[in-house]
């Protein structure tokens, strides 16, 4: 589309030139045609510039100033034509017409300055380019026109000044447009190049006019007028093709644009050398050549300095990019790319020199809980602290990397003891991380793989796969442990994938998930309630919870299991007529973080006509890290559901936080009960735990009772209820029903607030 204005302008300029050169209609008619056509081209240029100004960005005033410039030039042409065609008198020089003509470069320069204001600030470079263009063009103009005007100056000082003003202002305009055109984007460059051609055509005609006027030989209708006519039409074409200031952002300059300021320099030097033969032009031309050479030298020195600075910046940026490419931005450890690179190199050394290579893969346990409960800033804080601890327990030559998320890796070379490093890492991660004074768990499951000097070489992918299999085996073994790769792990992982597929299927969940119920007795004898324990059947085989629950956690379906277990527990409670018997169900952090969990649970209790105080929700200390979980627990408790804190004493809850947790029951972990089998074992720790629980206003259930010695000692210490294999193993629903029917109510003791009232 934009070729059409160019074609139309070319045809019009060609026709105009043909009429002026051939003069087919006589001298007077040619003069009339010349004057009217020139005025028409001025009006056309002013119109298209004004239209572009109205349609462009309000901040882009270039075309508004150019519209005024061509309007002023057209006014000058109109006054000149009036004298020639209507008044039939010779136009004096200077005249009123020259006011309009000389107003043109003023407005045009304002237009170029308005566009240059949108460019990036490169003042030194632009100044040097401007000096080079101006010096070169002035030298060229002196040799071709200015010198002749100065030598033939016989008129008044005003006439001499006006004659010189035309080529000098043209030099200024050409300088400005040449400097700007190399610093804009491609979209705006087309219009500015067209404008540069327009101003060049006007400069040629102005210089010719100044020379011919100084020698008294200028006549309207001569070939000199072609440049003015072409300049106006080209300005109109430039207005049509401009993309506005949105396109002024600089592109990478082409080679032609880089050398653009040197074009007038070559022309100026060539003209100066040519003029050396003429004694009248010699002195000024030599001065011009010297000035051009000095500016070229200055420009080159500046360019060398800029290139040195840019080279330094590129080198620094390349180093920074290299660091970013191989460094984890959060922890400062090596990233996945650098770890893979060093592992590949270590395996090459093993293949060549039989050097040992070991890899540890670490995955933080329950890290999703930290992010979901405390937010990503807390999670990031944990990752940074874990990175610091890993770096502290490894050698300086080992590669510690964060592979992504909460997964870390350690590469050991040169006979590094992988078992020793794994043990040190586990010890370093035993203590929680403090985030805003709140303890946050940072434990990890570790898988290790090792190649000893006599082992066959393997690929990088196989080495990592071995460590990965071992890490998931550590997850299955209960987490926060380290497992060394063994070939038998591959088969176990295949079975786990089958289990994963089954657990994530809703229909299989409803069919294969069942519950066994372990009884809980009051310290003085009667049955108090049951704990519902999840069981899974896979291929006709009963799967241990220690195996399928971690798979469910990694699959993200623990909340589904929680809800199904609550449904089973409520159904069982509905069958028991004794309102004193209650049921406890373990609930994961995923459920506690769900805002709909409270409403869902209460709806199920209401539908089954079961009192809320017969349901006890068991939660872990670590699952109450976030405010959302605490709100869920508080909502359940406010509705009458009992809350039990499970595995008390093994988590990370601080004492001041325990005082704020809305719990009714504290379950003492079997870890504190196991030593009581020995009659000589001290009871200070468990006694302190029981005292603390009572101080918090909670009833106490002691778990893990496996022999009479343990039972007698915890009862003597004052526990409220007991649970363990000695009193009853987890049993199917039918046996639990029979146990409830056989229970004989007895008088209650003073500490039976654990048992809900009827």
In whole angstroms, how far apart are the ends? Answer: 90 Å
Helicity level: 55-70%
Largest sheet: 8 strands, mixed, barrel
Number of strands: 16
Oligomer: single chain
Uncertain spans, ≥5 residues at pLDDT below 50?
247-252, 744-758
Calculate the mean pLDDT score and round it. Answer: 79
Structural class: alpha/beta
Overall, the morphology is: elongated
Radius of gyration, in angstroms, nearest whole number: 46 Å
Number of helices: 28
- Order of strands in the sheet with the most strands? 8-9-11-12-13-14-15-16
Per DSSP, what share of the residues sits in E-state strands of 2 or more residues?
5-15%
Give me the secondary-structure topology:
Elements: H1 3-22, H2 27-55, H3 62-86, H4 96-116, H5 123-151, H6 157-181, H7 186-215, H8 225-241, H9 255-258, H10 262-275, H11 279-326, H12 336-353, E1 357-364, H13 367-374, H14 376-392, E2 399-404, E3 407-413, H15 418-428, E4 433-435, E5 438-440, E6 444-451, H16 460-476, E7 482-484, H17 489-503, H18 506-512, E8 513-522, E9 527-538, E10 541-543, H19 545-555, H20 558-575, E11 582-586, H21 589-592, H22 597-608, E12 615-620, H23 627-638, E13 642-648, H24 655-658, E14 665-668, H25 670-673, H26 684-695, E15 699-702, H27 708-717, E16 721-722, H28 733-742
Parallel strand pairs: 6-7, 9-11, 11-12, 12-13, 13-14, 14-15, 15-16
Antiparallel strand pairs: 1-3, 1-6, 2-3, 4-5, 8-9, 8-16, 9-10
Helix pairs in contact: 1-8, 2-3, 2-8, 3-4, 4-6, 5-6, 5-7, 5-10, 5-11, 6-7, 7-8, 10-11, 13-14, 16-17, 17-19, 20-22, 22-23
């Amino acid at each position: 589309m934009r070729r059409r204005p160019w074609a139309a302008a070319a045809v019009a300029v060609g026709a105009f030139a043909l009429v002026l050169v051939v003069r087919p209609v006589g001298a007077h008619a040619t003069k009339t045609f010349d004057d009217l056509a020139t005025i028409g081209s001025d009006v056309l240029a002013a119109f298209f510039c004004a239209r572009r100004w109205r349609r462009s960005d309000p901040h882009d005033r270039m075309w508004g100033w150019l519209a005024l410039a061509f309007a002023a030039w057209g006014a000058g042409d109109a006054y000149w034509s009036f004298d020639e065609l209507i008044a039939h008198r010779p136009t004096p020089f200077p005249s009123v017409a020259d006011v309009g003509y000389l107003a043109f470069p003023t407005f045009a320069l304002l237009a170029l300055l308005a566009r240059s204001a949108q460019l990036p600030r490169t003042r030194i470079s632009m100044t040097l380019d401007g000096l080079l263009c101006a010096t070169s063009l002035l030298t060229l103009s002196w040799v071709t026109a200015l010198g002749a005007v100065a030598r033939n100056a016989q008129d008044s000082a005003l006439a001499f000044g006006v004659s010189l003003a035309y080529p000098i202002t043209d030099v200024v305009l050409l300088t400005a447009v040449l400097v700007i055109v190399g610093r804009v984007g491609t979209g705006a460059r087309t219009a500015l190049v067209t404008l540069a051609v327009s101003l060049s055509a006007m400069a040629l005609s102005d210089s010719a006019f100044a020379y011919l006027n100084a020698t008294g030989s200028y006549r309207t209708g001569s070939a000199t007028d072609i440049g003015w006519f072409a300049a106006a039409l080209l300005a109109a074409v430039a207005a049509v093709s401009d993309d506005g200031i949105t396109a002024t952002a600089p592109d990478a300059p082409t080679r032609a644009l880089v050398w653009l300021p040197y074009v007038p320099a070559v022309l100026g030097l060539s003209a100066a050398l040519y003029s050396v033969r003429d004694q009248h032009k010699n002195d000024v031309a030599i001065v011009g050549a010297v000035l051009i050479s000095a500016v070229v030298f200055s420009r080159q020195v500046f360019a060398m300095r800029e290139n040195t600075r840019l080279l330094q910046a590129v080198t620094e940026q390349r180093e920074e990019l290299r660091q970013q490419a191989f460094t984890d931005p959060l922890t400062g450890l090596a990233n996945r790319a650098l770890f893979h690179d060093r592992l590949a190199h270590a395996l090459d050394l093993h293949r060549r020199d039989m050097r040992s290579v070991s890899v540890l893969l670490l995955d933080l346990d329950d890290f999703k809980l930290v992010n979901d409960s405390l937010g990503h800033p807390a999670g990031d804080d944990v990752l940074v602290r874990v990175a610091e601890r890993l770096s502290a327990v490894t050698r300086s030559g080992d590669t510690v990397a964060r592979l992504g998320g909460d997964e870390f890796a350690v590469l050991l070379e040169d006979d590094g003891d992988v078992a020793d490093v794994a043990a040190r890492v586990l010890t370093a991660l035993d203590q929680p991380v403090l985030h805003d004074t709140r303890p946050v768990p940072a434990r990890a499951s570790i898988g290790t793989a090792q190649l000893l000097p006599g082992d066959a070489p393997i690929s990088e992918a196989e080495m990592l796969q071995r460590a990965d299999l071992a890490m998931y085996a550590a997850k299955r073994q209960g987490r926060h442990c380290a497992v060394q790769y063994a070939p038998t792990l591959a088969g176990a992982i295949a079975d786990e994938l089958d289990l994963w597929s089954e657990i994530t299927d809703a229909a299989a969940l409803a069919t294969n998930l069942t519950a066994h119920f372990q009884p809980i007795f009051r310290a003085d004898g009667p049955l108090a309630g049951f704990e519902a324990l999840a069981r899974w059947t896979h291929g006709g085989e009963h799967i241990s919870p220690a195996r399928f629950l971690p798979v469910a956690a990694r699959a993200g379906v623990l909340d589904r299991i929680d809800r199904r277990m609550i449904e089973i527990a409520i159904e069982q409670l509905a069958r028991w007529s004794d309102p004193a018997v209650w049921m406890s169900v373990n609930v994961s952090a995923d459920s506690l973080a769900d805002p709909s969990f409270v409403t869902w649970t209460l709806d199920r209790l209401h539908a089954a006509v079961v009192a809320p105080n017969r349901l006890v929700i068991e939660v872990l200390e670590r699952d109450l890290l976030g405010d959302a979980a605490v709100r869920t627990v508080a909502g359940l408790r406010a509705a009458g559901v009992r809350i039990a804190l499970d595995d008390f004493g093994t988590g990370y809850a601080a004492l001041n936080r325990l005082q704020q947790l809305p719990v009714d029951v504290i379950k003492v972990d079997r870890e504190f009960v196991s030593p009581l089998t020995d009659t000589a074992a001290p009871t200070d720790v468990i006694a302190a735990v029981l005292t603390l629980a009572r101080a918090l206003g909670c009833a106490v259930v002691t778990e893990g009772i496996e022999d009479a010695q343990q039972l007698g000692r915890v009862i003597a210490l004052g526990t409220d209820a007991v649970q363990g294999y000695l009193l009853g193993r987890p049993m199917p629903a039918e046996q639990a029903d029979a146990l409830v029917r056989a229970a004989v109510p007895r008088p209650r003791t003073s500490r039976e607030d654990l048992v809900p009232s009827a």
